[in-house]
Amino acid sequence: MEHRVVAFAAASRACVTLLALATSAIVTPYDTSSHLQVGASPLAALSNWDGVYFTHIALHGYDFEHFHAFFPLYPLLVRWLARLLPLQPASAILASGWFVSNVSFVLSALFLYRLGRVVLQDEAVARRAAYLFCVAPSSIFMSAVYSESLMCLLSFSGLYFLARHAEAPKPRRAFRDLVYCSLLFGAASATRSNGILLSSMVPYCPSLFQRFGGEVSGNASMEDRSWCAEVMPNFSAMYMFIQSEYWNVGLFRYYELKQIPNFLLAAPIIVLSLHALQGKATSGLTIYGRLVVGYFLLYTVLGSVLFPSFYPWT
User: Fold this and answer.
1) What's residue 34's pLDDT?
2) Alpha carbon distances (Å) from 233 to 43, 98, 186, 230, 307
3) Considering only CA atoms, which of 149, 204, 154 is closest in space to residue 181?
4) Of 60, 76, 242, 284, which is the most exposed, with the fewest CB atoms less than 10 Å away?
């Protein structure tokens, strides 16, 4: 059954990508930030929103403070792969980013299926979970120049080896699976901030100061950013400061009157989820399952149409 999951995942990525590219060729972009950076490449439609930052980091590195909100593993992989492509730097970065994201997604679906088989001991449920993952409302982000697909791959594969470690018949295999799990969780924490939660203890060595030597005059005045003094007790101080300073991210800050339309968009899946919690997963939930699949497909199409043109929809 694994080949069916892989084929379905690959087909879903092809459909999302083709729909996004077709839309970008027809609809005038709401914002042209991505085109200013990488030119008129068709794949520029897949580097909108956070993709602008990932593309810039892959091309030029961390030029500005707020870029540090985006963790380095994904743009580094994109940059290394781009060097192998016989294209202009910007086009190579876009092609590489699309390739890394979509291959990671297909492998994510495969490892989610394997994880489901190990944990649930039910092949049918594991397969359906993988299929639903392929048509999730966030599908467009999984095919764009975003780190979501890589994060899913590292998370699902790490959890798979952790689950297999618990059932390993031999100590040597159990140790090997635990090593794989640790390496994958470590890589996940270098991909997105929430990857740190996958491990109970992740080594993180913040760099507090750098000596500039003769490059900085002795009488030059430098003012530290506010997060510098907080790094020692709080290793995530820089990340938390950037999220708050540049994107107003914080506890309950999202709950504003201007966000009411977004809550209305989320209302259907919230209602469906609450309905599912009222009963057991029996054949009586067939209608519920159809509603979920319909909602997923609707948002997959909606995201694939609006994301390439930079229209706000989430």
Assistant:
1) 55
2) 43, 38, 22, 6, 39
3) 154
4) 284
Distance CA 299, CA 313 (A): 10
Strands in the chain per DSSP E: none
CB count, 10 Å around CB of 194?
12
pTM of the model: 0.73
Give the Cα separation of 79 and 58 in Å (integer).
5
pLDDT tens for 125-176 read 999 999 999 999 889 999 999 999 999 999 999 989 888 877 767 777 778 8
Backbone angles phi, psi at 209, to 5 degrees: -140, 155
Report which residue type is found at 211: R
Q: What six digits make up the tokens of 75?
A: 């743009």
Give me the residue spans of the domains in the chain. 1-202+250-307
State the pLDDT confidence band at 212, using cuts at 50, 70 and 90: very low
End-to-end CA distance of the chain, in Å?
34
Going by pLDDT thresholds of 50, 70 and 90, the confidence category of residue 183 is: very high
Identify the DSSP state of 283: G
Q: Indicate if the alpha-carbon torsion angle 14, 136, 153, 276 is positive or negative.
A: negative
